[in-house]
Structure formats: structure tokens, C-alpha cells
């Protein structure tokens, strides 16, 4: 039986739409094995216990592309979920990676991690969750002609990521459907300058610049109306000394970067969130540096 442990990810990091992402120390675990016949899925909602399950469809995608002669007659998948689904924390990327890695091992295909990255990105459509979930740390990536080009960036250990997670879901497909197909040239410049500043600020540990570098005109302004109290929460987080705040992935989770998680910060944000209509949970996270782990048990 394979045990595949995949970290959550926070994509975009403000201006880096479909380009930047980093892994977090929150994990989904998948236990996958071949059985004689059929499909058995446990550990998820009934809605996902069928042939449309993303882990299973990702396995099928791999077999059809790489080893069509090795499609197994039966598969058992057990999911141990810690990453809330549809919250902008890369749960779909964890399922795709688990499926692709399982099929690679079960079919003795021996594809490299880079080839797995390309196939998983082909399924997801963008590399910004897949790449850090696979390799850990922060990844800058682009996807062109079925190939991912990427660089790993070491996130300074002093950065803490406070995920403010609401009790409602926002699917990535819905959050992508509200984006415009064209943007003004000046908005392109606005984002290029901020992505460049963000990356260089992280490398130089020039944390004072992260706040302005997290601003964006490609997606956050279009998506924030889908999230009740988004602007109030962002303002509150900045008043509480966040060094950067952004929409995690396609939302609805709001991510705050802090330099140390002191009691005043956690306590003040908790009492503020209690005044709002929706229930918001806080998870204090660090950057995962290892990425996906596989054990044969
Ligand atoms: N634990 C899980 N079990 C089954 N399917 C899952 C699980 N986690 C995620 N998924 C799949 O991923 C989809 C959510 O992906 P998406 O809308 O991109 O949100 P997220 O930001 O969580 O990645 C679900 O609709 C489902 O297909
Ligand atoms: N770049 C994508 C990232 C989606 O991340 P998710 O965690 O919300 O699936 C986007 O912004 O659509």
C-alpha cells in the first residue's frame, strides 16, 4: 500500500496570479493500493466516492497517457483530509499529485519528479499549487507547451502564515469565471512591478516592502466581492501588524504573513472575527520545505 502525504499550498501570493505559490505545514494523506476488482473510496463525502473522484481521474489520466496497457482492474483509495476543500488551500492539487504519483509507482513507470510535475499541471491547468505541493518551499513557475519551468525560493523561517478560513467554500472554477479576459496595460505593469518587488524582498529579507508588494490588479479585486467582509478583514489584519495580506489561491481563505504569532495578534483577530456573520477559523502555519512524501507500507 502507498502512503502519499501532500502539503497544502497558498497560490498567487497577491500579484503572482498562476505563477507564485508556497507549501504549508498542513497535509492531506492518501492510502492507495490495487485490489482485484472495482473502485473503493473511503474518507471523503459520498459525493466523491465514485469514478469522478479527482484522485481516481488523475490516476486514469496517467495510465491513458503513459501506460494504457497497465490500467489496474481495481483500486482502493483511503483519504485522510486535513486541508479544507474549496477554500483556496490547494486541496485539488493534493488529490491530483496523489493520483499521478500512485499511478506512476503502481505501473512501474519510473517517471521523474519533473515529468510528474508536467502531467499534474496538465490536469490542474496551472502550476502554482502543484509545483510547491510537490517540491515544498516557495516556487516561481510558468507553464508553456506542456512543460513547467520553475525556480525554488527558500522562504525565511521567521515568516508565519496565518490562514483565516471561512465556513463556506468558493470553487476555483467559479472564482476564475469572474476574471476579465483582458486587462489594461497599466494593470499589467502594476502586477509585474509588485511580483518583482515581492520576490526580491523575500530574498533580501526586506520585509517592510511585502505589504505594498502583495497588492494586485489581476484577480483579488474581482474575487473579493464574492467574500463577505473581505475588505474589513484585510484592514483589521494590517492594523494588527501583518506584514502582508492576500487572498489565498482563488479564495475564500485570507492569508496574513506575520513575523511572530504573539498572543495579542491571535486574540485580537479572533475577537474581531466573532463579530462577523460567517464563522472564520484561524490556522497558524509555517512554510513546508519538503513537499510530497511517499512511503510504501
Ligand atoms: N478530500 C477530498 N476528497 C475528494 N475530493 C477532493 C478532496 N479535496 C479536494 N477534492 C477535489 O477538489 C475540488 C476542490 O478544488 P478547488 O475548487 O480547486 O478548491 P481548492 O482551493 O480546495 O483546491 C473538489 O470539488 C474535489 O473534486
Ligand atoms: N492561480 C489559481 C490558484 C487556485 O488555487 P486554489 O487553492 O484556490 O485551487 C487561481 O487563482 O485561480
TrEMBL record:
Residue span(s) of domain GHMP kinase N-terminal: 53-136
Pfam families named in the record: GHMP_kinases_C (PF08544), GHMP_kinases_N (PF00288)
Location of the protein in the cell: Cytoplasm
InterPro entries: GHMP_kinase_C_dom, GHMP_kinase_C_sf, GHMP_kinase_N_dom, GHMP_knse_ATP-bd_CS, Homoserine_kinase, Ribosomal_Su5_D2-typ_SF, Ribsml_uS5_D2-typ_fold_subgr
Enzyme class: transferase
Highest taxon in the source lineage: Bacteria
Chemical reaction(s) catalysed: L-homoserine + ATP = O-phospho-L-homoserine + ADP + H(+)
EC number: 2.7.1.39
Single GO MF annotation: homoserine kinase activity
Pathway membership, UniProt: Amino-acid biosynthesis; L-threonine biosynthesis; L-threonine from L-aspartate: step 4/5
Keywords: Amino-acid biosynthesis, ATP-binding, Cytoplasm, Kinase, Nucleotide-binding, Threonine biosynthesis, Transferase
Family: Belongs to the GHMP kinase family. Homoserine kinase subfamily.
HAMAP family recorded: Homoser_kinase
Name of this protein: Homoserine kinase
Organism in which the protein naturally occurs: Romboutsia faecis
